[in-house]
Design goal:
Blueprint (H helix, E strand, L loop, with lengths): L4 E6 L5 H14 L4 E6 L1 H6 L22 H4 L5 E5 L3 E3 L16 E3 L28 E5 L10 H6 L2 H5 L9 E3 L6 E2 L13 E3 L16 H11 L7
Parallel strand pairs: 1-2, 1-3, 5-7, 8-9
Antiparallel strand pairs: 3-6, 4-9, 5-6
Helix pairs in contact: 1-6
InterPro entries: Nucleotide-diphossugar_trans (IPR029044)
Protein name: Glycosyltransferase
Organism: Tianweitania sediminis
Length: 233
Amino acid sequence: MEQSLDIYIGWDSREPIAYDVAKKTLEDHASIPVRVFPIKVQELVAQGAYTRDIDPLASTEFTYSRFFVPFMAGYKGWALFCDCDFLFLDDIAGILQYRDPSLAVACVKHDYTPKATVKMDGKVQTNYPRKNWSSFMLFNCEHPSTRQLTPELINRESGAYLHRMQWAKDEEIGEIPTRWNWLEGWNDKPETGLPGAVHYTNGGPWFKDWQNVDYGDLWRAEADKVQPGWQPI
């Protein structure tokens, strides 16, 4: 298989610096050619691809648009999606080994029940089966089940159907180690070394009330390089 990867990161107008740090740290550690694209729902709307009504329970602008990755990739090859609230600390080439042609998608299969009822920016913290599985997805864009993710289906189906990956059979969902979607405040810190990617799913250092988080000093150092003089919101 080709030793390169296209990566799509969710972009939210309320926290653009989170995207910038995720993109920078991913590229800085990559030993393979990568192309990184923001998923901006406004652009999909302008193209006429995204027609869903506003969902009051959606916590980000990319709650549903993440499932457009196979469409955006032309249903060709493999492509990675991740939320914007990631800090990459290892080489993304490490996930290439989880590409299996028999799979539609691979992810970290968290057994996660959030402790808080409100997220970092005041949004309601909803709980559902397979929560956070869809925050880091390695798509096999050519797989028949993945090719079902057309704009028509994404605009029509429920959030539960999409995020629980009911568009794929259970045996078509591969597993990636936790270190690539390490949930800050939930997963135990590794005994040695660092996670491959830290996911600030509850709140990250770009919020003033979320400064004392694990690896927050590393995130802030990267933010200083991306945007000197930035201030938490």
